[in-house]
């Protein structure tokens, strides 16, 4: 009888432990993260390469996307929790339509000297100035953000964007399209810009579009789902700290950070050494006034239907 009771007690204890483990798993799921395979995602590449998530006891589910719009849509559908490298433009549209969906915890501080965007053309092209872009075809990164900001930039410089044809192209197809003549100019991001300019067949028509519109420009952002943050505050905080660690390493060891790029993007070590790394804030360095100036800019050019309050987008307690 004693043995049967002991065996029964052990069984109950094991079942209780299993149930507790299942409940804990339900309460604290893994974090789902998405980012594009571009230089702006370098802090995430660093975190993965250097095992920062494992060190923090986090096992993320990582997905790669081609553009910011798709990442934002997946976050709204509750298939993602953190976007560490996303365009701020669709995030602001999301805030305008569904206030309080995300919290911004980091952003770029892009200036002309550390920008990742340029307008490039082939050498020998008939395009010598921005005004020559009228009646031409321009390749742009997929999604609405690049096109809308480029339109505002062209208008600022006296070019009617209605007279320019914009063709959305993923990075692997951009240079071949420029070479073949399928497009006449390219609004390029790193590393495509560096690849193009390292040869002798292309030239820069203009530097940073984004920094020209606002410097420093917070066009790149990192956001976390507020519903995820409320339900799993510890996990959200630890994930943000891992992203911060990636940013610190990028700042303190830029050459080592660049060397990681070929392992996560289709670029050679030679190209990686030459690309620009955009300055990015830590989570405790968010410049609310800079975000507000960007919001005001988008409102003034008609990109936003109403003027948002940057404090509501960045406030941890909301």
Summarize the SSE layout with pairings:
Layout lengths: L1 H26 L4 E4 L6 H8 L2 H4 L5 E4 L3 H9 L5 E6 H10 L4 E6 L9 E6 L14 E4 L3 H13 L8 E4 L2 H10 L4 E5 L2 H7 L3 E5 L2 H5 L6 E6 H6 L1 H20 L1 H7 L8 H6 L13 H13 L9 H5 L4
Parallel strand pairs: 1-2, 6-7, 6-8
Antiparallel strand pairs: 3-10, 4-10, 5-8, 5-9
Helix pairs in contact: 2-11, 11-12
Provide a compact summary of the structure:
47% of the residues lie in helices and 16% in strands. The protein has 318 residues and is an alpha/beta fold. It has two domains: 28-111 and 216-314, Periplasmic binding protein-like II (D-Maltodextrin-Binding Protein, domain 2, 3-Layer(aba) Sandwich), CATH 3.40.190.10; 117-207, 3-Layer(aba) Sandwich (D-Maltodextrin-Binding Protein, domain 2).
Outline the structure in words.
- With 318 residues, the protein is α/β, with parallel strands linked by helices.
- It folds into 2 domains: 28-111 and 216-314, Periplasmic binding protein-like II (D-Maltodextrin-Binding Protein, domain 2, 3-Layer(aba) Sandwich); 117-207, Periplasmic binding protein-like II (D-Maltodextrin-Binding Protein, domain 2, 3-Layer(aba) Sandwich).
- It is built from 15 helices and 10 strands.
- The strands form 3 sheets. It has a 5-stranded mixed sheet, with helices on both faces.
- Helix 2 crosses helix 11 (233-252) and helix 11 (233-252) packs across helix 12.
- The radius of gyration is 23 Å and the shape is globular.
């Amino acid at each position: 009888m004693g043995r049967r009771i002991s065996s029964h007690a052990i069984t109950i204890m094991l079942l209780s432990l299993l149930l507790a483990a299942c409940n804990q798993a339900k309460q604290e799921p893994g974090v789902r993260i998405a980012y594009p395979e571009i230089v702006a995602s370098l802090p995430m590449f660093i975190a993965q390469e250097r095992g920062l998530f494992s060190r923090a006891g986090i096992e993320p589910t990582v997905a790669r996307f081609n553009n910011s719009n798709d990442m934002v849509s997946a976050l709204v559908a509750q298939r993602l929790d953190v976007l560490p490298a996303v365009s701020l433009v669709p995030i602001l549209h999301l805030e305008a339509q569904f206030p309080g969906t995300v919290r911004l915890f980091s952003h770029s501080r892009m200036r002309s000297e550390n920008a990742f965007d340029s307008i490039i053309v082939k050498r020998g092209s008939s395009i010598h100035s921005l005004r020559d872009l009228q009646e031409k075809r321009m390749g742009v990164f997929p999604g609405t953000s690049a096109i809308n900001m480029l339109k505002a930039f062209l208008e600022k410089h006296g070019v009617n964007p209605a007279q320019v044809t914009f063709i959305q192209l993923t990075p692997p197809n951009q240079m071949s399209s420029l070479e073949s003549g399928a497009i006449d100019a390219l609004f390029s991001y790193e590393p495509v810009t560096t690849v193009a300019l390292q040869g002798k067949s292309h030239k820069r028509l203009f530097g940073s579009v984004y920094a020209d519109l606002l410097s420093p420009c917070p066009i790149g952002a990192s956001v976390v789902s507020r519903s995820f943050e409320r339900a799993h505050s510890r996990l959200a905080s630890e994930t943000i700290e891992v992203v911060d660690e990636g940013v610190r390493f990028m700042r303190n060891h830029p050459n080592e950070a660049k060397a990681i790029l070929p392992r996560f993007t289709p670029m050679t070590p030679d190209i990686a050494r030459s690309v620009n790394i955009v300055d990015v804030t830590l989570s405790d360095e968010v410049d609310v006034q800079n975000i507000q100036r960007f919001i005001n800019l988008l409102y003034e050019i008609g990109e936003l239907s109403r003027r948002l309050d940057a404090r509501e987008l960045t406030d941890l307690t909301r």
